Structures are given as structure tokens and as C-alpha cells.
Amino acid sequence: MIASSDRIRLSPAAYLEWEAQQPIKYEYLQGEAYAMTGGTLAHNAIALNIATALKTALRGSGCRPFMSDAKVGVTNKGPFFYPDVLVTCDEADRTAKTLVQHPCLIIEVLSPGTEGYDRGEKFKQYRKIESLQEYVVVEAESMGVEIYRLNAAQKWELTPYFLERNGSTESLMVDFVSVDFQCAIAAIYEDIDFPTEPTSP
Questions:
Q1: Cys-Cys with 144: which of 13, 93, 139, 178 at CB 3.0–4.6 Å?
Q2: pLDDT digits (tens, 9 = 90+) for 62-74
Q3: In sequence order, which residues have a C-beta less than 8 Å from that of residue 160 and are 6 or more positions away?
Q4: How far apart are alpha carbons 13 and 78 in whole angstroms?
Q5: In a 3-state reduction of DSSP, which class is residue 92?
């Protein structure tokens, strides 16, 4: 999902009550609610591919994947975001009705207008979630995945997955260590046709 420039100032409690009555979703950061707009079809398809693969892999494990209609609360007072895909394995989230508070994995599919925000301010806020072990950003206009993992020293390490470095789409496996799952990058980009640049005569 993409945040628009429309913003409304509210307290955290007022935001939660107000947003539940709205026909569209709003994220909440630093006292302001931001309207969310739809992404491209490729953006949606990539998120669906990842969520489907996770749903199949995690069946019976106690971990649950969600897509962009699931709201994440960094704290009880915000910020509040709608990641493209998330996974929670926490028992407290199993009985939650409107808010996930203990995700171990958060995935954002990048859009040109929000890439800086997803890599910057949003990741800064996500890092405050104590349960979070991996933050994933996925390219939507080319094939590439970057995973930030919290290591044993409590430092975030980047592991990139790009074809030019790692071979074919079938052999390149993306590791989601937080949920003990490997996925071929080809499955993440299944049915995605990237535009080809015109060749010079």
C-alpha cells in the first residue's frame, strides 16, 4: 500500500476509533493519519505470491501470515502501519481482533514513491518492535529482495538476494530465517512480467 499526502491530526486513541469507521485504511505516525492508496498490479501480485508461499509453509506451525489489511502497532500508542505481508508467531496475537503487536517478520513491497520511506522512517519505527527478527524489502520493478536480520549481537544485518550475484531464478533461494522457510525468488515473482527497455536500432 502507498501513503498519500492526505493527513489528519489525531491522538492515538482517537485515530484507532476514527480509522475503524473509515472506508479506506490510514497509517498513523507522529500524531498524523495518512490515507493509504492502492499499489500497482505487480505490487499486489508479488505480495500475494509471498503470502501464499508463507501460508502453505507455516500451516500447522502456530505462525500466521497476514496481508495488507492487517494493522501493526509498534506500541499501544502507535505508530500504526499496514505492511504488505507480516507473520506473527506470538500467542497474544492469536486472539487479537484488529491489531498485530508481536510480528516476527514484516515485508514491504517497494513502490517508487515510497521506497525511501519504507527503507528509512518506516524501518526505523519497525525496529522498535521487540518481537521483530526480520524486515524484508522486495523490489517491484525488477527482481531483488533485501532482508535485514537481527543478529545475536542485536545488530541489524543486510542480506541481499539479486540475480546478477547469485545465478538463476530457480537456484536462488531467499531465506526467511525468522520462520525457518526458504523460497525460490522465482516463486516470489511468479507471473510477473517486467517491462523490457526498448533496444536501440
A1: 139
A2: 999 999 999 999 9
A3: 144, 145, 146, 147
A4: 9
A5: helix
